[in-house]
């Protein structure tokens, strides 16, 4: 018998802002981006992808962001995120989603973070916060080093497809599962489960939730 699970978006759902933007100073310290990159490069688009931006625009921006990873080691990325977890990322975590995580666990459900952010970043955050696993966007890795080539963009339809793939491999019952997100762009992700919840929703998602009768939760700032 398949088990239910709970899936949480990361940015503005589990944490208060963009995880990539929060890590930008760390990326600069590790030489991944320069000060000029913060202002002019395609990476800037990844930091500030607008809510409600077209799937194509987000896909192109994400692929450009992956190119900046070329030549950077996976081990250094994990070290970067680990160093930033306590001083940078943990203070951004909402209390409410962690309470929800405990409630789902009490029902015997596994809990996952699902985000368009790089897999290694999402994995570290999920592990630190006590989730069972994570789905993120993936970049090709050869000999422990990123090549800069995007393999999976966990955004829009791609995010929903990644959840379906996980559900198949882990024998999860998506109809009995719950998903939380703040963004209109995550409607396919929310539609993939039987119990979608709009968490801190943007205006478009709030309207859709009202029409479809989806629950809405607003976490404290």
Can you tell me about this structure?
By secondary structure, the chain is an alpha/beta fold. It is built from ten helices and seven strands. Strands 4-3-2-1-5-6-7 form a seven-stranded mixed β-sheet. Helix 1 crosses helix 5 and helix 5 packs across helix 7. The radius of gyration is 17 Å and the shape is globular. About 2% of the residues have low confidence.
Low-pLDDT segments:
47-51
Mean pLDDT, as a whole number?
Answer: 88
Number of strands: 7
Q: Work out the strand percent.
A: 15-25%
Provide the succession of SSEs. Answer: EHHHHHHEHEEHEHEHE
Query: Largest sheet, order of strands side by side?
Result: 4-3-2-1-5-6-7
| N/C terminus separation | 39 Å
Structural class: alpha/beta
Using only C-alpha atoms, the radius of gyration works out to 17 Å
Helix content: 40-55%
Strand count, sense and closure of the main sheet?
7 strands, mixed
* Number of helices, where a helix is a run of at least 4 consecutive DSSP H or I residues: 10
Shape: globular
């Amino acid at each position: 018998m398949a088990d239910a699970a709970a899936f949480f978006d990361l940015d503005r759902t589990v944490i208060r802002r963009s995880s990539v933007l929060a890590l930008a100073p760390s990326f600069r310290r590790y030489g991944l981006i320069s000060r000029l990159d913060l202002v002019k490069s395609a990476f800037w688009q990844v930091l500030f992808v607008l809510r409600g931006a077209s799937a194509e625009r987000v896909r192109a921006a994400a692929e450009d962001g992956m190119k900046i990873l070329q030549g950077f080691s996976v081990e250094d990325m994990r070290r970067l995120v680990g160093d930033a977890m306590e001083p940078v990322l943990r203070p951004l975590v909402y209390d409410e989603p962690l309470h929800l995580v405990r409630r789902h666990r009490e029902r015997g459900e596994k809990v996952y973070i699902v985000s368009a952010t790089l897999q290694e970043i999402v994995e570290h955050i999920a592990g630190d916060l006590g989730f069972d696993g994570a789905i993120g966007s993936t970049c090709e890795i050869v000999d422990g080093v990123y090549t800069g080539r995007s393999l999976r963009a966990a955004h829009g339809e791609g995010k929903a497809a990644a959840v379906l793939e996980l559900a198949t491999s882990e024998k999860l019952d998506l109809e009995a599962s719950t998903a939380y997100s703040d963004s209109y762009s995550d409607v396919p992700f929310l539609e993939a489960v039987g119990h979608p919840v709009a968490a801190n929703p943007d205006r478009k998602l709030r309207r859709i939730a009202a029409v479809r009768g989806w629950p809405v939760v607003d976490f404290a700032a």
